[in-house]
Design brief:
Length: 188
């Protein structure tokens, strides 16, 4: 039985390692998604190269004027019949209006065990707080930053000799595992 895959867009701002991972996942037979669009607020985001190499349409919008960028994004999302948006290192906050239009269809990966350490500089703040565990969370996007309903989390032990870089690398490995699992969970 072949089920039709759900048209998905991925929003990125940087290296796109989670994007690369999601593209790999989307190509698997059991994957419920097909990535048909990548949107970035950064025209030099490395992730755009992955999209190009994988023949996925790319759009770059300047989010300095958020209303215009969101309007353009919305138009292309509707035109392409996108049913799921995955934020993967997208460093802009989407407006309430935009989120409402895609309610329950936008998910994000965050490098902490939410609700702890919302926002930026997560690993640095984790290390400064001397907590024993950090991790990553896939959650629905709501109008409050990093506050939507949690889909899946993975705990990572913070080591005594951890640096921002070493902790980030270990957590990223777990992000690659739980993002696809979270997608499977919500779409199956």
């Amino acid at each position: 039985m072949v089920t039709k895959k759900i048209k998905t867009a991925v929003f990125i701002s940087g290296n796109g390692s989670n994007l690369k991972n999601l593209i790999k996942f989307s190509r698997k037979k059991m994957s419920p998604i097909t990535i048909v669009l990548v949107i970035s607020n950064n025209k030099s985001a490395k992730g755009l190269k992955y999209a190009h190499h994988n023949m996925i349409e790319r759009e770059k919008f300047n989010f300095k004027n958020i209303k215009t960028a969101e309007k353009k994004s919305l138009n292309i999302l509707l035109k392409k019949k996108i049913k799921l948006i995955c934020l993967a290192g997208f460093m802009k906050v989407l407006s309430k209006n935009f989120i409402k239009k895609f309610s329950g269809k936008i998910i994000n990966i965050h490098p902490s065990l939410l609700p702890k350490f919302k926002g930026l500089n997560t690993h640095k703040r984790v290390l400064e707080s001397k907590v024993k565990f950090s991790g990553c969370t896939v959650h629905y996007v709501s109008s409050k930053l990093d506050s939507g309903k949690i889909i899946l989390q993975k705990k990572v032990k913070v080591k005594n000799n951890d640096t921002v870089n070493s902790l980030q690398k270990r957590i990223l490995k777990e992000e690659y595992k739980i993002y696809p699992k979270a997608i499977m969970k919500i779409l199956n």
